[in-house]
Design brief:
This protein is α+β, with helices and mostly antiparallel strands and about 500 residues long. It is built from 16 helices and 17 strands. A five-stranded mixed sheet has the order 6-5-4-1-7, sandwiched between helices. A three-stranded antiparallel sheet has the order 9-10-12.
């Protein structure tokens, strides 16, 4: 390796026993020469850079005089010398503007100054072609994983001061009482920060119980809450993610004949959607749920190894994550044969009515929890009307009852953005109990799930699972359903499957 970085060096992989990289001096001399000059780097900052700077300024104002360390995190091992596809920590991506092109192991440091903070990005910069790393390191070498940007490239691209990762050691050696770290992003780096704290007697818990993490937890909370209200760039990215996701759903509808023919048709649904996600963005925002028949009653069914049979419904919960990491999260439930049975249609339209009731109340100033309550009012009324509840809908809606929740145990909404379940570390009084503000983006996703062995419902309902999920933007005077153009009503869905696809789905690949 050309350099070794104390803070980020990973445990060695078991690769030496199969290495065939040439090692002679003649080879090293030959491979280090005869290369063309690298082309000039980026000429201007990316669009997101100015928004990332504003986000950093907001975090800076919350932690005056404190050093803040926000790691991107290392690659994560899948098996032996194979890693999972890399994804930087969301707080790092949000505060730097780096997304799918992040160099693994990078670290953002906000160093306190007299008038705020100086932002510095530490990353493993491109190695010289005269180094062993260039050709002999399968984890980070250019021959193996591709070129990395130069220090100047990154500084211009992100409008940030950029330094080599080796220089991070000086920052970590200076850890003091006022240093905070996003703990979950990089376990090895966090361990080093904690070690420095213990040695220096900083932020130690009472009675020798180790490190006091309260300050770190506060930082994690605040960088999460920073994403509750989206800026203009983020809203535009959400629209793009929804549009790409709509194309993925339309691909699945077009592929239904082949999907039905395969014994593991759910896998074909997953593959069709994932192809679109890779073509239009970075990847999927989460594991695609392709749940056909009774699998639709399993809320997070991701094995996707079952058939897709005519007569059943298939619940598809999927979202495209863009290179910026912003993701959609949309669910549609489709009749595989093209038309709903009377019972399927009744359940489907009940769920849609619940979704529409929730959307109808969305506007700035209401409580986030009210969205769920509006949907539950419909779910309780419908299940009571069908005779599934031992009490009236009004009785079931009381806090000490909740009989209708047997058929929908999950919540109706969650914030959405750079994470599919965005802002998850925000305080309850700003999230569940918080007031809606213009610029918030969240899902509305009621459902009804009648398990195949549920004796509280008639046999014709058993094994039916329906969810409809849309992505909602709060506006200054109400709300916009960003995914409303994807067929939602039972009639629209049947027309969609019949081949009368809407204009948004007519693009050829």
């Amino acid at each position: 390796m050309a350099e070794t970085d104390k803070a980020t060096t990973e445990a060695p992989r078991a690769t030496e026993n199969r290495s065939t990289t040439p090692g002679s001096e003649k080879f090293r001399d030959f491979i280090s020469s005869g290369w063309a000059e690298r082309p000039a780097g980026v000429g201007e900052a990316r669009e997101q850079a100015v928004y990332a700077a504003a986000r950093r300024a907001r975090i800076s104002s919350l932690f005056p005089g404190q050093r803040l360390i926000i790691p991107a995190g290392p690659a994560k091992q899948r098996s032996n010398d194979t890693d999972y596809p890399y994804r930087a920590h969301s707080a790092f991506a949000h505060l730097t503007g780096w997304g799918s092109d992040t160099v693994p192991g990078s670290v953002l440091v906000l160093e306190p100054t007299a008038d705020g903070h100086e932002a510095v990005l530490f990353f493993r910069e491109a190695a010289g072609r005269d180094s062993d790393e260039f050709y002999a390191n399968p984890e980070i070498g250019e021959f193996w994983t591709g070129p990395r940007p130069s220090r100047d490239d990154v500084a211009v691209d992100l409008a940030l001061e950029a330094r080599g990762l080796g220089e991070l050691d000086a920052v970590l050696d200076a850890v003091d009482e006022e240093t905070l770290v996003v703990r979950e992003a990089d376990a090895r780096l966090t361990d080093r920060v904690d070690s420095a704290r213990l040695v220096g007697g900083f932020r130690t818990a009472a009675a020798g119980a180790g490190v006091d993490t309260a300050g770190d937890d506060e930082l994690a909370r605040d960088v999460s809450e920073l994403r509750l209200v989206k800026d203009e760039y983020e809203v535009d990215e959400m629209r793009r993610a929804v549009a790409a996701t709509a194309q993925g759903f339309n691909d699945v509808v077009r592929d239904l004949p082949q999907i039905i023919e395969h014994p593991r048709g759910e896998r074909l649904v997953e593959g069709t959607f994932n192809r679109r996600a890779r073509a239009e963005g970075n990847t999927v925002g989460y594991d695609t749920i392709a749940a056909s028949g009774p699998h639709a009653c399993i809320l997070h069914w991701t094995r996707n190894d079952g058939p897709v049979l005519p007569g059943d419904l298939i619940l598809i919960d999927a979202g495209v994550e863009l290179d910026s990491y912003y993701t959609a999260d949309i669910t549609r439930t489709l009749p595989v044969a093209g038309t709903f049975s009377p019972v399927q249609r009744m359940v489907y339209e009940a769920v849609r009515e619940a979704a529409d009731a929730a959307f109808a109340i969305v506007k700035p100033g209401i409580r986030f929890r009210e969205v769920h309550a509006a949907a539950m009012g419909v779910i309780a009324a419908k299940t009571a009307e069908w005779g599934f509840l031992p009490v009236s809908a009004e009785e079931s809606l009381k806090p000490d009852a909740g009989y209708h929740r047997r058929y929908m145990v999950h919540g109706t909404s969650h914030h959405l953005g750079i994470d599919v379940h965005d802002c998850a570390q925000a305080r309850r009084d700003l999230y569940l109990d918080g007031e809606l503000q213009a610029g918030m983006v969240f899902t509305i996703e009621p459902g009804l799930y009648f398990q195949p062995d549920d004796l509280t419902v008639p046999e014709e309902f058993r094994g039916i699972g329906v969810r409809i999920e849309d992505d909602i933007l709060v506006t200054e005077d109400g709300a916009e359903n960003l995914s409303a153009f994807i067929p939602r009503t039972a009639d629209e869905v049947e027309e969609w499957i019949a081949g009368r696809a809407p204009e948004w789905g007519d693009e050829e690949e």
